[in-house]
Amino acid sequence: MFTLVAPHTSYHQSFLESHREWAGAHQDGAAVFMADDVTTPEGFEEWVARLLDAENTPEKDGMVPCTFRWITEDSRYVGSIAFRHHLTPALLNSGGHIGYGIRPSDRGRGAATWALREMCSLVAARGELDRVLLTCDDHNAASAKTIERCGGLLEDVRTDEDGDLFRRYWIDVRAAALRTARAD
Ligand SMILES: CC(C)(COP(=O)(O)OP(=O)(O)OC[C@H]1O[C@@H](n2cnc3c(N)ncnc32)[C@H](O)[C@@H]1OP(=O)(O)O)[C@@H](O)C(=O)NCCC(=O)NCCS
Questions:
Q1: Pocket residues for ligand 1 (CB within 6 Å)?
Q2: Which of 37, 136, 150, 176 sits between 20 and 30 A of 184, alpha carbons compared?
Q3: What's the predicted TM-score (pTM) here?
Q4: What is the pLDDT of residues 40-68, one digit of tens each?
């Protein structure tokens, strides 16, 4: 059974196993940057503190307050999901409210679909937004399917600065939350 938890240092070893699986690829929804030292206990603790602080950090340099949750199963780190509390013009165009990534060895098990529904439920409970924007590359079939399984309605398909197509979907968070309740 999957669980959503706030980032915590107790997941360090499991996170590192996942980190190795990603093999340097961008970890969507995890906010791991090149400069982050996630390998040492001290660096990991600092990074985790930063993820937790992001929830209450005022908007600065295009960054908005963000809630990070880790998707776990039996104390094992499976992936991450991030909810940006409001949209800047850039997020409205291409970033969206929510991003997520699942470690390669756990893909195709329903983790992303489950986590996106749970996050929609959390957003609905906050009571500030009726709907959230999700975006994905046009060729990212797994992500598009995840969004559609959570009730995502395609608004349009746009072109990024490299000429690649990406899709923009809106999800009604209350409807998605009801899907969660029914699935339970
Ligand atoms: C996209 C991603 C998060 C999906 O996670 P996941 O846990 O494997 O997704 P799920 O198991 O919940 O599957 C969701 C749907 O996608 C389908 N799917 C999964 N992998 C697929 C693939 N490679 N091609 C096509 N469809 C796929 C599943 O069958 C499922 O649809 P269904 O419920 O109709 O059967 C994961 O592949 C990932 O982390 N990719 C790299 C990061 C990324 O792309 N993040 C999203 C950025 S927008």
A1: 28, 100-102, 107-113, 136, 140-143, 145-146, 149
A2: 136
A3: 0.96
A4: 999 999 999 999 999 999 888 889 999 99
Give the pLDDT of residue 181: 66
**Closest C-alpha residue for ligand 1 atom 9:** 112
Superfamily of domain 2-129: Gcn5-related N-acetyltransferase (GNAT) (3.40.630.30)
Average pLDDT for residues 131-140, to the nearest whole number? 98
**Ligand 1 atom closest to Cα of 103?**
39
Domain boundaries, the chain: 2-129
In angstroms, the first-to-last Cα distance of the chain is 11
